[in-house]
Write a structure and sequence with these properties.
Elements: E1 4-7, E2 10-13, E3 18-24, E4 34-39, E5 46-51, E6 57-59, E7 67-72, E8 77-82, E9 91-97, E10 102-103, E11 107-112
Parallel strand pairs: 2-11
Antiparallel strand pairs: 1-3, 3-8, 4-5, 4-9, 5-6, 7-8, 9-10, 9-11
């Protein structure tokens, strides 16, 4: 079993920044597609960002220009830098790996207006 552990969530003011981390228990980050999803109350889970094994990235239109996904292969960790946060970004954020279809437990991000 692969474990994905998210951290870095919290309460921030609109316009603020936050960096989420997702630490994998084995070395999969550098060779597999890694995703960040989010789910707000009463809404479906949505893909926010993705990074491929080759380093290509994609983003939801709602976060383009504000969020950046990256990885540190030596630490087996995926990051998401979130800038210019909006109240609409409030959600539980989940890390996901295509390898084995694993999910983290989620980390809460709350943006106040």
């Amino acid at each position: 079993q692969v474990q994905l552990v998210e951290s870095g969530g919290g309460l921030v003011q609109a316009g603020g920044s936050l960096r989420l981390s997702c630490a994998a228990s084995i070395s999969i980050v550098n060779t597999n597609v890694m995703d960040w999803y989010r789910q707000a109350p009463g809404k479906q889970r949505e893909l926010v960002a993705r990074i491929t094994s080759g380093g290509a990235t994609i983003y939801a239109d709602s976060v383009k220009g504000r969020f950046t996904i990256s990885r540190d292969n030596a630490k087996n960790t995926v990051y998401m830098q979130m800038n210019s946060l909006k109240p609409e970004d409030t959600a539980v954020y989940y890390c996901h790996s295509w390898y084995g279809d694993y999910w983290g437990q989620g980390t809460q991000v709350t943006v106040s207006s």
